[in-house]
Amino acid sequence: MKKNILILAMSTLNKNNTVDIVENRFAWEKDDEIGYAYRGQLEPISTMIREREGSLDRVVILATKETREKRYDSNMTSAVGYYLQRMNISESDAKVIPVEEEEFIPAIAETVEEIRKYWKENLKNGYQVKLWIDTQGSFRNINLVLNAIITLLEMDGNGIVPSGVYSINFSSDNGIKNIVDQTNNYKIFQFVSGINEFIRSGRAEQLEDYYHYIKKDIPLEVKFMKNIAETIQMCNIKEFDKYLNDFRRYKKGKENKRTEELIEIFQRQIEADYGNLLEDNCTCLDVVEWFYKKGFYQQAITYIEAKIPMEWKEKGIISYHISDKVLNDLKCKLRKKNEEDVNVITSHLGVEMFQWGSICYNKNGIRKCNIDNDLMKGRKKDYQTLEKLQNITLYTYNNNKRDKQIGNMSVDIHCKDQNKVMDMLLLYKILKKERNNFNHMLENDVRATKAELGEVIRMFIEKGRYVYENIC
Questions:
Q1: Torsional sign, CA 17, 19, 22, 23
Q2: What is the pLDDT of residues 6-22, one digit of tens each?
Q3: Could you tell me if 297 and 321 lie in one domain?
Q4: What's the gap between Cα 50 and its chain centre?
Q5: Which has the least CB within 10 A, 14, 76, 351, 396?
Q6: Contact, 277 vs 244, CB < 8 A?
């Protein structure tokens, strides 16, 4: 069993406001040279649905005041009344929704609610429901209204997707006006919406849905974007780097090779959005900044914790001097044998050198925050100057108090302003703590707000930009 529901926007009667309209003919099949007779321009698509699908069970009519009013010079009928009369549709099978060009939001809301209600009731009664759209009539901005309705219904979660969107081609030479399937054209709005979703939030599902709908192969570009988006959502740093590198190579190999794909129109936006991430000289700091700008704070601090220490080492920003025995003892006592040496060292240096343990904390029951441009306040007394870096004593800690001595090491910093590197080390420490709070859902620790966390990430990036440009 099937039910067909049609949305259309009512047109006014002809310029003389009479019902003595000239009869024309239309067809929906290319080879049909005879067609069907019609008088009003909204009859063809309604007739096609009824004839082709077997029924036209419900019509939702968006009607302006002018199309709802009965006119003396049109035998006391309105445009809406004339349509219902011509199509032999009872008033009980039609829903007339008032709409005006200057104020159409209420009409959009009422239309969406009407379709949802009809859809839900008939599905419950065992019917297959199909939605059809006639774009032919009404005021010039009606296509924007219809697109908003389509988009809101698709977002509903109940699978309400138009089975077809149609208009009439009035330029036919043989006198037969052909019905034109506009469904894929309307799906372009979904594609553009998908591009906006990607630019704003890094997600690519809507782009993939567009290609599924029009039954075309998904471009490699969209597949890469979707894979990258999924690794971001899962905080999978290893896979993120892999797909980003693959996408970077793909883009390099595709330079100056354009296709007819719709996505080519948005190449500049996509490339501008990824920015330096698509360049060979992309740094981990670039990735962190990209996450930050997208609002992916958890992903940003995860990437900082996992990747930044190795980048510092590879760029020669910081060099550590520690014996194999002391390093092994440190990793054993901290139970971090499987972690990267440089990550363990960087993390433990944060414990040794800085008194700030987190972004926010409780002091005598009062919530306080360690967000201060004077990051010198976060250092322990011995590290207010940099001489101590040449002879750092490493300890294990119990309840934030020194416990057992492990050994000694030294640190060299290679930057014009070494204090900026010290600031980054401090920010690394408190961001790592916040990352642990996220991952372990620690309720006893004071959590930073989104704004507080974002400010600390911003400071980390700002310090990092200076450091990366002033390595010596």
A1: positive
A2: 999 988 876 554 444 56
A3: yes
A4: 39
A5: 76
A6: yes
